[in-house]
Specification:
Elements: H1 14-28, E1 35-39, E2 54-57, H2 63-73, E3 78-84, H3 85-91, H4 93-102, E4 107-112, H5 147-154, E5 158-162, H6 167-179, E6 184-189, H7 202-208, E7 209-211, H8 222-229, E8 236-243, H9 251-264, H10 269-276
Parallel strand pairs: 1-2, 1-3, 3-4, 4-6, 5-6, 7-8
Antiparallel strand pairs: 5-8
Length: about 280
């Protein structure tokens, strides 16, 4: 924990997410100087500043490419990325597919409150159809993005959902995402108490929530996970939708292996110089 006091509105769901991250990191036990925490722009993107990890509050929608650069430059760091639904699924949405296909060893936590909170309550990519906001006076005409379905369809190896209504469960899920050897995505329904819709508040979330474990969901079955993910916005399934039982190598592993392979046939430095220096 850093000495900074969060400046979120009293009751904001991001306080709960922060507690979940503290618990997960405490369970993992890596010292702060071995952790890099990258965010974009938005209320939730303040979160790295409330930890003692190396924090990088980047530009809007760009937490993932920056996190990727950090991980490739220093593979020993534990790298987390975080942000909101606008940051992650609108301006930053194009990065998701590439982060998944590269299988970067990064845990990405999205605080999804289905509204733009920092800029005072406009429609976000996950706002439901019909929602009335200051930018949709007569109700939104657009279908929302389904983050769970997108990530499962892209082929992500770890996809989960959590909510501050179940703090212990959320901490366990964040810890599992961090421990997953590859790209891991956690969508957290985090209420915006100032601009968020009624059913997104704690009472509404509790009424919608259902544990995937209690449903007997097999988290190694991607198609079953995609089936359940279609309930996004209507039901709040909490738990791990999908975890690849045989995680493939990460991008970092592949780059390291390629470097080792190429270095076997590399000419010694003195021979390279011979190519250019006439004797
Ligand atoms: Fe949280 Fe909403 Fe306040 Fe932002 S505006 S700090 S998301 S409650």
């Amino acid at each position: 924990k850093s000495d900074l006091k969060p400046i979120w509105c009293p009751g904001c769901g991001d306080f709960g997410v922060l507690q979940g991250i503290y618990r997960a990191l405490a369970a993992i036990g890596r010292p702060p100087h071995e952790i890099a925490f990258v965010s974009g722009i938005g209320c939730s993107s303040r979160i790295p500043g409330y930890t003692t990890a190396y924090g990088f509050n980047s530009v809007h929608g760009r937490s993932l490419p920056i996190a990727q650069g950090i991980k490739m430059a220093n593979p020993d760091l534990l790298v987390l990325a975080a942000g909101g639904d606008g940051d992650g699924f609108s301006i930053g949405g194009g990065h998701l597919a590439h982060m998944v296909r590269r299988n970067m060893d990064i845990a990405y936590i999205v605080m999804d409150n289905q509204i733009y909170g920092l800029t005072k309550g406009q429609l976000s990519p996950t706002s439901h159809k019909g929602l009335t906001t200051c930018t949709s006076r007569h109700g939104s005409l657009e279908e929302p993005v389904n983050p769970l379905l997108y990530m499962l369809a892209y082929g992500a190896g770890f996809v989960a959902q959590a909510a501050p209504t179940d703090l212990a469960g959320m901490a366990t899920i964040i810890e599992a995402a961090i421990r997953y050897p590859g790209f891991a995505f956690v969508n957290i329904q985090s209420p915006c108490v100032t601009y968020g819709m009624e059913e997104q508040q704690i009472k509404g979330l509790k009424a919608m929530q259902e544990s995937l474990e209690a449903l007997g969901h097999d988290s190694s079955d991607r198609l079953a996970a995609m089936d359940l993910a279609q309930h996004y916005g209507r039901k709040l399934h909490l738990g791990v939708f999908y975890r690849n039982p045989e995680p493939p190598p990460t991008y970092g592993d592949l780059v390291k292996a390629r470097q080792e392979e190429l270095s076997k046939n590399a000419l010694p430095v003195e021979n390279i110089l011979d190519l250019f220096i006439k004797k």
